[in-house]
Amino acid sequence: MLRAKKKLWSPFSKRLLPTRTISSTTCGFLQNQQQHLSNSQRHSSFPFFSYNNNKIQTSSSSGFSSRFLFFSGKSFCSAQSSEKTNLRCWNCNAEPQNAPFLVCESCTTIQPVDHSVDYFQIFGLENKYEMEEDHNLEVKYKNWQKKLHPDLVHSKPEKEREFAAEQSARVIDAYRTLNNALSRAIYILKLEGVNVNEEETVSEPELLAEIMEIREAVEEAPDYQALKEIQSLVQEKLQNWSDYFASALRGHKFEEAKNCIRRMTYYDRVNEEIVKRL
Ligand SMILES: [Zn+2]
Questions:
Q1: Residue 151 sits in the same domain as residue 59
Q2: 267: Cα separation from own chain's centroid
Q3: What angle do CA 156, 94, 107 make, to 5 degrees?
Q4: Same domain, residue pair 212 and 143
Q5: For residue 70, is it within any domain?
Q6: Among 8, 37, 179, 234, which residue has the least CB neighbours within 10 Å?
């Protein structure tokens, strides 16, 4: 395995990584591997790599589909829906008590989808790429599903059953999108009005060669432990590009941000392959 690892850490990586992360990823990676690993395990925004948590891992494995986002593209900076003065429950006419208004607090009736409420607002989170450690996304997601699940309204009128199906699907989509660093990056750029063409590839021979090497190592990995070691390398790469993306986003350097996303996509896909084999 050590041989495979050394192979992965070819000089390619030096040239491919953003300048500011080179020191932490090329020098002494092997020595600090344990530290890196534990750092990333703590990083709750990276579901793919929280391999101790089967639930999160399962949900993230379908993260790619969640990138096909369903929203109208109209103002995402608008105030939360409940602040709109004319918003009332379609069933009992009560005014919303809380934002966002997905369920009426008075009569528990599920409301129609309001596309001006973005995914961050659904979970009461700040519109920010880097999520706080205590974001409790999974807990909030489950709480919504307890209120919105279509099974809860199977005996209700068709109108509410439709709202339940739509709200529930949107909350699932919101959860999967925000729970994965790559899909969250793509989404937050969309909120900024920047679309990422996911078919657009990187025509950089070094990156492609590196990805091929990683894929080969994955195929040749003799056991679980070997795969985990490769995964931690991929995780490191993803984290570096994710940090670089966050920095580009803060500086409104959207082309740079898109470039980071394209690179993250390669590592994310390789990681999906690893997850399948684990
Ligand atoms: Zn109501």
A1: no
A2: 14
A3: 35
A4: no
A5: no
A6: 37
Distance 95 CA to ligand 1 centre (A): 8
Question: Cα-atom radius of gyration of the chain, to the nearest Å?
Answer: 21
Cα(184) to ligand 1 centroid in Å equals 32
Is the distance from CB of 194 to CB of 254 less than 8 angstroms? yes
Q: How many alpha carbons fall within 13 Å on the CB side of residue 33?
A: 13
107: tokens are 């009569």
What residue has token string 């494995």? 61
Residue 79 in any domain: the answer is: yes
When pLDDT is cut at 50, 70 and 90, the band that residue 242 belongs to is very high
**Residues of the domain holding 25:** 2-63+195-277
Report how far ligand 1's centroid is from the alpha carbon of 161 (Å). 15
Q: How far is the CA of 259 from the centre of ligand 1 (A)?
A: 46
Do residue 172 and residue 86 come from a single domain? yes
CATH number at residue 120: 1.10.287.110
The proportion of the chain whose per-residue pLDDT surpasses 90, expressed as a percent, equals 62
Domain identity same for 118 and 170? yes
Given 142, 177, 212, the domain boundary residue is 177
pLDDT in tens, 24-59: 333 333 333 333 333 333 333 333 322 233 333 333
| CA end-to-end distance (rounded Å), the chain | 16
Residues whose CB falls within 8 Å of the CB of residue 158, separated by 6 or more in sequence, listed in order: none
Q: Nearest-5° angle of CA 22, CA 129, CA 253?
A: 65
- Spatial separation of the C-alpha atoms in residues 182 and 201, rounded to whole Å: 15
Q: Calculate how far, in angstroms, residue 91's C-alpha sits from the geometric centre of ligand 1.
A: 5
Both 156 and 227 in one domain: the answer is no
* Residue 8 per-residue DSSP state: H
Domains contained in the chain, number:
2
Question: 96 C-alpha to center of ligand 1: Å?
Answer: 8
Shared domain check, 199 and 160? no
Count the Cβ atoms, other than its own, within 10 Å of residue 145.
17
